[in-house]
TrEMBL record:
Protein name: M23 family metallopeptidase
PANTHER family: MUREIN HYDROLASE ACTIVATOR ENVC, PEPTIDASE-RELATED
Ranges of residues in domain M23ase beta-sheet core: 61-179
Species assigned in the record: Thetidibacter halocola
Repressor found in the keyword field: no
Domain of life according to the entry: Bacteria
Signal peptide positions (record): 1-17
GO molecular function, one term: metalloendopeptidase activity
InterPro entries: Cell_wall_metabolism_enzyme (IPR050570), Dup_hybrid_motif (IPR011055), M23ase_b-sheet_dom (IPR016047)
Length: 318
């Protein structure tokens, strides 16, 4: 995700400051009320890799995504916090909160960061906070802010499909710095950090969640062929979650909500951890068929009581 319009060159200097200075940029508890969905892409070429050489990034991803478990948490209101003291350099507000789709993607072109704030810090680095809720930005250019001060709320503005805050750490020239690995070392070897209270790394996550009209095969899940955007009124309604590095004993929770409320809640325990696996659960259509409308499924992975990952999927019954 590029946010070029908010990344302006304000100084010819912009050296990396390796001393930790960042606190958590969101009012949540990692592993309980939030989790890290994606890290900075450490792979300079095509493809992606996080700083530990794992799968938790996306090609050319320039920041860290800290996600909420569901839309209800966003609607309750979660503050985005200044990760360090500094001066507000730029803000943007007024963009609509909605899930990015192919139909509306052009409306955020050049404004992929959504409602946002950029803060300059005394060490020469900047932090950029993206995807905040419309009307929630509570600071202005020139304001001095303190670490931990609310600057907005988590939303769905810009190039996003789920509630999270994207934080980028930038040099003055706009080049990104990975706060988990500001040095050259990779895969956990002699890593420095810019976090005052380092957030533990977990390689496990969810590639995706999706709906299908029957229990899919693994190849169809992996390729995306299993996914359905629409399902007939008389077809089975099946939700699946596609996970990576799930461990033995992890729990995968699956929930579907439709026009009439909750359709089902289902839980499965992973009996054997694998590099990649999926689980699926669904229902046959009721007599008379599924009510027309929008359906949303949620897949959550827990390790004990610790939140590991969460994804959602949408499907329509015409």
């Amino acid at each position: 995700m590029r946010a070029a319009l908010l990344i302006t060159v304000l100084s010819a200097a912009g050296s990396l400051a390796a001393e930790p200075f960042l606190s958590l940029p969101i009012d949540c508890v990692p592993g309980t009320t939030c989790f890290i969905e994606d890290y900075v892409d450490a792979d300079p070429g095509p493809g992606q890799s996080d700083y530990m050489c794992g799968a938790k990034s996306r090609d050319d991803h320039r920041g860290t995504d800290i996600a909420l478990p569901d839309f209800a948490a966003m609607e309750a209101g979660v503050n985005v916090l200044a990760a360090a003291s500094g001066v507000v350099e730029a803000t943007r507000d007024g963009m609509t909160d909605r899930i990015l789709t192919p139909e509306n993607a052009s409306s955020v072109e050049g404004r992929e960061c959504g409602n946002a704030v950029r803060i300059g810090h005394e060490n020469g680095l900047k932090t950029l906070y993206c995807h905040m809720a419309q009307g929630s930005i509570g600071v202005h250019s020139g304001d001095r802010v303190q670490a931990g001060q609310p600057i907005g709320r988590v939303g769905l503005s810009g190039q996003t499909t789920y509630p999270h805050v994207h934080i980028s750490v930038l040099n003055a020239d706009g080049s990104e710095v990975d706060p988990f690995a500001p040095g050259a070392a990779r895969c956990g070897e002699a890593q420095e950090t810019l976090w005052l209270d380092p957030i533990p790394y977990d390689r496990s996550g969810l590639f995706t969640a999706g709906f299908s009209d029957g229990v899919p095969g693994f190849d169809a899940v992996r390729s995306g062929d299993a996914r359905r955007a629409k399902i007939g009124r008389d077809a089975p309604l099946v939700l699946y979650g596609y996970a990576f590095h799930a461990e033995t004993g992890d729990r995968m929770l699956m929930r579907v909500e439709g026009p009439g409320g909750a359709l089902f809640d289902h839980e499965e325990t992973i009996d054997e951890g694998k590099a990649q696996l999926f689980r699926a659960f669904g229902r046959r259509a009721p007599e008379g068929g599924w009510p027309p409308g929008a359906y949303r499924g949620f897949v959550t992975v827990l390790r004990g009581d610790r939140l590991i990952a969460a994804r959602h999927a949408d499907v329509t019954v015409p």
